[in-house]
# Entry
Amino acid sequence: MPAELGRLMTAMVTPMTDTGEIDLDQTRTLARALVASGTQGIVATGSTGEAPALSEDETVAVWRAIKEAVGPDVAVVAGATNADTRRSMRLAQVAEREGMDAVLLTVPAYNRPPQEGLYQHFAAIAGSTALPCILYNVPSRTALNMTVSTTLRLAEIPNIVGVKESSGDHNQVGAIIDLAPDGFRVWSGDDSDTLTIMALGGYGIVSVAAHLVGLQIRGMIDHVLAGRLPEAAKAHHRMQSLVDVLFVESNPIPVKYAVNLAGIEVGGCRLPLGQPSESTRTLVEAELARHEIDLRSAVRG
# Structure
């Protein structure tokens, strides 16, 4: 039985060596540390995990390493889709065979299908696996927004269980939350939007900042669930400057640098992303000095 998909899931970076090879030992180390610092599930080989730069063999190796590290009770969501429907179906089936707990179905980039094509694409992938499927709408990366009506059509497919929403359109997100079938979950796809989306009735966050402040994000989520919105707002404001710095360059360039500084060697990014600029390094270093970093406590523990 798949593990429960938690309210706080981390979109995990893919650790690499100095020569740009996948570092599976550090992958396991980071996965365990994330769970120790508040993460309830891990989204592997998404955009934060540099999926476009990984081979299929590397992708599957990362899934295996993370699942070995976190065990059966922590969900591992496999980033298993791209702009090729048939290849996405095959990868979803591999994810199921490898014991993953769900797959992430990202809106295709570059070929920009119409909404009916999006529906058919995701319906075909979901039909190829028994795993729970989470949709991912991220127009800033794909140049295509999945509309409310398309999302709601897909929500009727039994194993499509939720959506990671990064549209930035709170009216759209609110409509999905309001009109989707019972049990369909909406995760924020942007750390800046977590408080707003949860206040609208969303379920949680697939987070980048949880690499560093997972326990604090969990605390903010708990405040919302308990109706303590002023306290949740204070937590949001306290973390917002850190969130902003993590996106001063293309994700995951800043967060990989920050995780290195926090005590787990994850290397840099493969080309074409490359290394952080000097200005980014300076900003990240200064920002980390201003915050309590939960990951550091997990590393020491």
